[in-house]
Amino acid sequence: MNPLTLSLLLATVVGTSLTAVAETLPARAFTDHMVLQQGQPLPVFGTDHAGQAVKVSFAGQTQSTSTDKDGRWRVEFAPLPASTVAREMIIQGSSSVTLTDILVGEVWLAAGQSNMDWKVRQCSNTPHPDNFPLIRMANWTGTVGAGASDTYEAEDLDQLSPDTFYQGSWTTLDASPVADQSAVAYFFANALARELRGRGPESTDIPIGIIDISYGGTTTEAFIKPEVLQANPYLAAAFTNPREARTLGQWATSRIRRNLGSYTHRDPALPHPHPFAPGFLHASAMPHLQPLRIRGVIWYQGESNAEFSSDGFMWNGQRLADYQHQVMATLVNSWRDEFHHPDLPFYMVELPRISAPNRILWPWYRNAQQRTADEIDHVELAVVTEFGSAGSNVHPGNKEPVGERLARIALAELYRERVAHRSPVFVEHKTTKGKIHLRFDHSGGGLVDRDGGELRNFEIAGANGKFVPATATIAGTSVTVSSPDVPEPVAVRHAWTMDADVDLASKEGLTARSFRTDAWLTAPGRRIRVACIGDSITYGAGLADPATEAYPARLAGILGEAHEVRGFGKSGFGIHRPEKKYDRTREYLDALSYAPDIVICNLGINDITQWGTYQKEDMIREYRKLIDAFASLPTRPYIIQWSPLAPLFPGQRFHADPNVDTLNEWLSAAVAHTGVDTIDMFTPLKDHPKWFPDHIHPNAEGSEAIARAVALKLKQLDDVPADP
């Protein structure tokens, strides 16, 4: 290796922090052995002294520029065709750098957590040396771990910097380097290299390049731009305080707490220095990648984001699906903005089968993945259920078919290969004579039972929401489902468990997705229990007969026999009111004993009476304690908070008090930390002062309006279309 190349490789480890020493530096993505994206303009960028003239030459083109005031430079070359011919890139500024052995082909970004990071040497599959010459990989490895027993010292925190966290450069492949590459990414690249042979200019081959920024155990939020996180109230809560926000799940939050120890975060604009913290991996990778041109993204992530199973982190499945869909959609859309590529292909791996107590919400996470793929163009999902684990192993060793499934998608969607690439997807159903008939798209030559026996994993339910095992038979591209125990069926679910051994597939061998035809918020197989917890409004203060006129009673009448609604209101009590805390009341204990499926929370306004005796952090802490108690119930209730709270009207003591607005803001922040859903109870009531004769408590008409608003919220949640 020549001295210039050695200095470059050292510089790429620390990015811009060595600019003053190494002088002319290309960005970390540019090293010997790299692959540049064919057929697109080719930006090349880096750093040097401010105001420095820089000239870059590659493949017969030369471009010149000068650095800006921050010492950054960028040039752009005209698009080039694929080429297996190794070329040099010469960069001349305050010093000269020569990069060697550069190819032009297809460049993909691989990201996610441990199953994307899982190495070839750790998997059960054997590499394919015939295609080694066509594949180059850049494995960017995190330099600081996140082990269960690690507490970061000063030197760890120094290394946890966007300029120093990732190390790695491009490498050619042979038996030794390939062993330490991502297995999924390698087998994806191998399949592309194999299938694209002879597809280059004059029937030449097409090189494949992979940049891998995955990190074991991390979260989706870690890969999202800090400014994007801060613009979303729910995501901002986890960005601001990842040690406390329950929206990151039990795995990530517990590791962040343990690893950071007594660390004090001082700059609210920057991510916390931890590989699982929202925004951290983005800040550590993307500034060194963008505006590099890539063909697309392969993504294997979700194990951490689906882990909400222990006390303080238990979530209703539907809420998890809704929230994680929001997180994934935010990731995809923000990356497309940053890469200036509105249709950037984004191919995800659906979580496979597993059996472990902390993975029980995986069906709902798969639902979030499916919704993301169905709702956003050019997002595709590789269904790999059968390549998971029948036990608790979260790192199944059979990675080659996972990479192959991703490659099938790319070959069909981008490279115009006629290959089946989408799994069978439920699209519609109809009910006749006690049976539900399901129709599927993407079933290829027809549906099959890959085991040749009776189809497994189908359940059917009547209007009571009680699902029972069902008999299912295939007819072409349809499946008919029935059970003698459900003579009047209304809903079917398929593979709606974490560990389903799925046998329904297309004749081309692609496994059918899990799905449900219903959109029920909860399906306990009995009357749905709704607990309305709160203060005097929930109790019905001021009403002639609270037992029949308070909003919980009116809500029961609207929802009907399928629901059982009870009110647990306590007048004058709040979240943090020292002498009148709701979680010290008999009503609170009774609400917990009721084991509700849905919780409607109207607490907070009474805390205004103690304004100045507590801070925002105190409100968040006490609210989380309250919510955690309900979230930890075996029923995993769906929790909805009034936010903003009901209005106060002229004549009420605190009407127009600006602290009420601040209280609502604090309550909103507390809600975001817990991840519960909200209902705006201010807007439907604010124009009706006559409903509030004492300026704060509703009369019977007002209670009816509140009940109807809550019923509409629940109906809207139940009406969310099931996938697709």
Overview of the molecule:
The chain is an alpha/beta fold. The strands form 7 sheets. Strands 2, 4, 5, 7, 8, 9, 12, 13, 14, 15 and 16 form an 11-stranded mixed sheet that branches. Strands 28-27-29-30-31 form a 5-stranded parallel sheet, with helices on both faces. α18 (616-631) links the parallel β29 (598-602) and β30 (638-642).
Helix amount: 25-40%
Oligomer kind: single chain
Q: What integer is the average pLDDT?
A: 94
Q: Alpha-carbon distance between the termini?
A: 54 Å
Number of strands: 31
Signal peptide: 1-22
Keywords: Hydrolase, Signal
Domain SGNH hydrolase-type esterase: 532-704
Pfam families: Lipase_GDSL_2, SASA
Comma- or semicolon-separated keywords:
20 helices; 22% strand; single chain; 31 strands; five-stranded parallel sheet; eleven-stranded mixed sheet; alpha/beta; 28% helix
Mind sketching the topology for me?
Elements: H1 3-14, H2 19-22, E1 25-26, E2 35-37, E3 42-47, E4 53-58, E5 61-66, E6 72-77, E7 83-92, E8 96-112, H3 114-117, E9 135-139, E10 141-142, H4 154-159, E11 166-167, E12 170-172, H5 175-179, H6 183-195, E13 208-212, H7 226-230, H8 233-240, H9 249-260, H10 280-289, E14 296-300, H11 317-338, E15 346-349, H12 362-375, E16 379-382, H13 400-413, E17 425-432, E18 435-441, E19 447-449, E20 458-461, E21 467-469, E22 471-475, E23 478-482, E24 491-494, E25 504-506, E26 515-516, E27 528-534, H14 536-539, H15 546-549, H16 551-559, E28 563-569, H17 586-593, E29 598-602, H18 616-631, E30 638-642, H19 658-674, E31 677-679, H20 700-718
Parallel strand pairs: 2-8, 8-13, 8-14, 9-13, 14-15, 15-16, 27-28, 27-29, 29-30, 30-31
Antiparallel strand pairs: 1-3, 3-6, 4-5, 4-7, 7-8, 9-12, 10-11, 17-18, 18-23, 19-25, 20-21, 20-24, 22-23, 24-26
Helix pairs in contact: 6-13, 8-19, 11-12, 16-20, 18-19
